[in-house]
Amino acid sequence: MDQPAPIAEPSARRALRDRLAIPVLAFGGILMAVMQTVVVPLLPDLPRLTNSSAGAVSWLVTATLLSGAVLTPVLGRAGDMYGKRRVLTGALALMTVGSVMCALSSDIVVLIAARALQGAAASVVPLSISILRDELPPERRGSAVALMSSTVGIGAALGLPLAALVVQYADWHTMFWLTSALGALGVAAVWWAVKESPVRQPGRFDTLGALGLAAGLVCLLLGVSQGGQWGWGSPSVLALFVAAVTVLGVWWWQQLRTELPLVDLRLVSRPRVGLSHVAALLTGFAFYANSLVTAQLVQAPKATGYGLGLSIVATGLCLLPGGITMLLFSPVSARISASRGPRITLALGAAVIACGYAVRIADSRDLWMIILGATVVATGTTLAYSALPTLILRAVPAEQTASANGVNVLMRTIGQAVSSAAVAAVLVHHTSLIGGAPVPTLHGYLLAFGMAGAVALAACAAALTIPGDDPASDETKHAQDRTRSSRDEALEGA
């Protein structure tokens, strides 16, 4: 009598998981970006809702920025050593726990702690890109990595109008219950659909290096993010910058003398890696100014002569075309990188960002021109952000992919923090009184656009100085990486 084949169902289930792995990872990236932006519409009302000061409420953004910057390279390194899916699932779980805490409390201290937990999700994109490198064949890798990189902009564009709608028509805690449910779904989906990567770098985790990097980054980013409020020449800010330089200098010395460092600085010193990090910092600066300035400009009162007086919901909808464009252009970026190389894609993306700011300078009064300029900047950001991880993938060994991409994302984060501070400084120095309140002038906004466009051109120049691709040497290096990983696994098993 014939026996049923027990393998059929498991094989079909495995095939389904393989097909869903990329969409699930992309969902995690979008969810991470949504989590970072949903608090923005709440900021004006939170002092009243939490019985706290505006300065305390600002820490809901600062805490996420600081924890994300610190944890991204740390969790990237942990993923390379202990398993990328395991660490990715943990980061999404921390993000979800933070969302539940926000849903359950109105205490500002609890909310700040919860937002710090959510900062762990900043590592989702570099960890996911590393998994894609390990699991996908080369012909599918480029488009998948480009899509994963674009999720940051897509989620940000979706998160703002979504949060504004919830805040306008429901209790603000409802928004966090919604994101908690989405976070739990993301954790379960990743655990079910994504396979654990077999590529590991064995050894002992560099705890001292992690603590040193954390201390240095907190001092640096705290000084940058709070400089506008505390005063750039204040003793507190100057002390933070001195401490950052001192701690990071000692950390750099320690990393060069550690057998298995948290960040391989010798790898960073290679032109293809180091210049990619410089381009990431400049691109992060140029991209972030678009969201910051557009949101403020369209909400400015009509009495200014240029403002449109739009609501926060309408503002989010103005940024939505940019998010849709990022989704549509991610495969275009992958095709350009495949045919011309990722450094050309990066340079082209930075040039397109500069063109977008030229449109903004030409006309920032008509709504359709504002949307057009913002969408052009988003298009350039898609090209640039999709090319950056591809550059890193081609330049580093397989077992260091997550940590190297984590450092690249860290550089983008620093660029965004500096952009926020620089834009705020420009707008504060160019204001006029409208209804008794200081409001940035159109000239201030145009200066901010010009500054961001100039930085985008600098990113283009940095991209063009990155050494060109050598496919033959890349294949040789990757073959050596695979051999080394197989040897390490055999030794570990023995």
Automatic annotation (TrEMBL):
Q: Does the keyword Transmembrane apply?
A: yes
Per the record, membrane topology reads: Multi-pass membrane protein
The Major facilitator superfamily (MFS) profile domain covers 21-471
Extract the PROSITE patterns matched here. Answer: MFS
What subcellular locations does the record give? Cell membrane
Under the heading Pfam families, the entry gives: MFS_1
Name the record gives this protein = MFS family arabinose efflux permease
User: From which organism does this entry originate?
Assistant: Streptomyces pseudovenezuelae
UniProt lineage: Bacteria, Bacillati, Actinomycetota, Actinomycetes, Kitasatosporales
